[in-house]
Amino acid sequence: MHRYIVSLLLLLLPLSGCGALLKTDFTPPETTTPAQWTASAAEVSPAATWPTDFGDPALTRLVALALERNNDLAAAAIKVRKAQYQAGLAWEDMTPNLSASLGTDSEKSLKRGGWDTDYSAKFGISWEADLWGRLSSARDSAEWEALATEQDRQGTALSLVGTTMKLYWGIAYDNVRLQLSESNIESSRQTLALTESQERWGAASSLEVNQSRQDLASLLATNQTLRQARQEDINALAVLFDMPPGKTMADPETLSMAALPPIPAGLPAQLLGRRPDLRAAELRLREYLADTDAAKADFYPPLTLTGSLGSASTELSDLLNNPVAALVSSLTFPFLNWNTLQLQLKVSQADFDEAVVNFRQTLYEAMKEVEDALSNRDRLAERANHLAENLTAAREVERIYEVRYKAGSGTLKDWLDAQDTRRIAEQSAAENLYSRLTNYVTLYQALGGEPPRTETVAQTK
């Protein structure tokens, strides 16, 4: 028996290397990338560490809680486990399948009057020899997909952190606007009281009183719009935490630019390789390539070895007595379905070609996102200086018109217009502050994580 097993192994040995001939080496798609960004830019670190860069403990705690509770992230983790299970099944396809059965058979003898009972046991084995690499290619494909799915999960976490931070600052921005609104309403009420008093003394007309009332009504209406926007942001943040709408997870009162993290200049473009979506795209390129190799292997006949051993079977002994005959009897000839296999191969190749195009597009979109975020960062910083000057001037103009009106040398309309100009300037300054904060998050997401320190950038070049 030992001699026959050796003969069987010697028969398979020359064929065992055939699968390697059908494997295609992976070559990354050709792309054009700049040496570094035209604007100032950094290396990636885990998404959960971002908030610490902004010196807000409440924000740091909120992000950590979001990563624990978010439903989308939980679903992404389940997908990772599922892909890992699929990869495990692909490995199982390459190992022998064992089976066993036990049976009894009883019959009564009419002559002897007694019962005869027979017991049987049967053990079976089935194994497909991966001569052409079909099973190993399918295994590789499943493993690449499992790795890509993990990158999808990291991408979900990246997006979740960014969304949480933007909503947190969005609520803070809403509160700042509401504070400005309440202050403007109080100022408008005082102006209305002043004009009504002046009207009673004949120093103001009914037109001016109605202008003041119109101004107050407009501010009150805007205040309700701002309250609704704040509530919607609070609801959106609650849903992120697997909580019902209306639950207040955070309610920051103001925006702060006290400690915006620095962005070092001269970041190399290859830092984009740390983005989860680009990593997933490259891994799926490898997956589609493995699928194509598996489709090529389908043209070759699979070889399945089967046998059983038991009290009622001689199949395994037949296999050992004549292994060559047994092997030939288990061969199938898929190449008889040539047209079907050709079409299946072309479909796999088309999937790979499509993945290459999508990879390039994803890469260039990522480059655009980084370049846009860096450029917008510079523009927002420059705009902040102009808005600060504008607000200072608007407040001074309002003060002058107030003095003139109260002195009787100016009109109420001029004063109200100056108030509107000052309010717009305040809103614009607050909006710019919010935009600068969210721009940092957009840049972090585009880079796949927080920017590195200056010395890290120097080492990366």
Automatic annotation (TrEMBL):
It comes from Pseudodesulfovibrio mercurii. Its main location: membrane. Residues 363-397 form a coiled coil. InterPro entries: MdtP/NodT-like (IPR010131), OMP_efflux (IPR003423). The keyword Calcium does not apply. Belongs to the outer membrane factor (OMF) (TC 1.B.17) family. GO terms for cellular component: plasma membrane. It is a lipid-anchor. Residues 1-19 form the signal peptide. Keywords: Coiled coil, Lipoprotein, Membrane, Palmitate, Signal, Transmembrane, Transmembrane beta strand. This is RND efflux system, outer membrane lipoprotein, NodT family. GO terms for molecular function: efflux transmembrane transporter activity.
